[in-house]
């Protein structure tokens, strides 16, 4: 039998196929457009529902506060929210303040701050129900203390959106381990705070909840990714909060908003129930840690969390209680330091704040030893960038493209969307003129195989040991270095990954690190920006000047670092910096 000749069959048919093909193409196009329209409608519905949930919680909180004030005519919140954490816990313990009054005081203040700064994703109204049983937790170190938590920290029945549409309408089935432990210690989680879309950005804006503003200047960003925490605490709406940090995400908002933030050694605190858009990425590890108004608040939070409850709930956390003796030590320290890491020239205010802090430490009897980061260029591009985007950024990009892209992420998203071979070509073309941009583009390709990923992990382990060996050679206890600041103008964070060199290095190394606010930007600092040239004089250096411009009066911090698992040593060093700074300011006043 002859083979059926399709082409002959069609040609024998007396049909004009042009309109048929045209109709088919038009129909397929119409179907595609319809499917896109339905997809966009579904996305908009999810975003609208999330906003409605947030608005409903804000209304419920306002009503609850008003009811409490009506029932308690003498209630006055300002005297409560102005207390330090040690003062607050003391008054709660001795009964001179009741947990309900404290909760409603901070709820009222948080509502006020949120109206100005847009820092909340939801008020947790279950916190009111928690008051019924709070007296059973009277022995807890945080008894009656309202606490804010970052959006990606799981709280039963609430979303952990990470600022992406793909994670909406997926409420947590149970509390994260840290929330469970906080509750056992008597704390009352009462509000969730805003984040940037996808978390891997140090701005604080997403298409669901919008842009969070800086409490010190509404024309500046609060930083990120724990930017809602930084803004809320900096604005006085929370006394203690929990954030996460994979590149400076606790320390940068602390610096930008004029508070303190601490990134512990990864796994010192449990990360069970912490959401991420790059879950499974192991090259650069995220840490969960506290933000507060002062270092003592951070230490108290760590002391409360590092308890048997945490070690039982998450056996993967080493059962190491908080070492109060190390934290309270007053022995002179041997402190390594560097003012310029050789990758990003610090802003004038960063450099001045660093030098002033170094001088205070020397005058207090500590020994200061020059230190320089090792092979930083290699560490940032080949180990950090290539590690975080090990899959070429595909996992992160899949979450981002599931909804509208926030303006603060457009530059990052544009790079993620470029095909690999074109990225490689761009990298080659840029190399003679802009070597940093070239290396960054090449690093964004990620790794090409499992074998390459294993080599990358081995290289990171070798680098960590190399840095520890240098630390030991110099015999230093801790390290002092600049902290990124001051707070940026909007829309620059996504274009300036280069500025993360001072923070992300310690995520790669898994060294504890904290930010302590020590100064504010002066008119002279601002004037010196005109002479800023940067280390490389490239596009990134020029953008950095534009990002920090107009910062007079904004807070400036320094960064304190210690070796892995020596978290108490880092906090002790942070407290020393804080106390010396406060003493110096007092002396200048008199």
Automatic annotation (TrEMBL):
Residue ranges constituting the Amidase domain according to the UniProt record: 102-571
Keyword Hydrolase: yes
Enzyme class: hydrolase
Keyword annotations: Hydrolase, Lipid degradation, Lipid metabolism, Membrane, Phosphoprotein, Transmembrane, Transmembrane helix
Superkingdom per UniProt: Eukaryota
BP-aspect Gene Ontology terms: fatty acid catabolic process
Name of the featured protein: Fatty-acid amide hydrolase 1
Gene that encodes it: LOC109101674
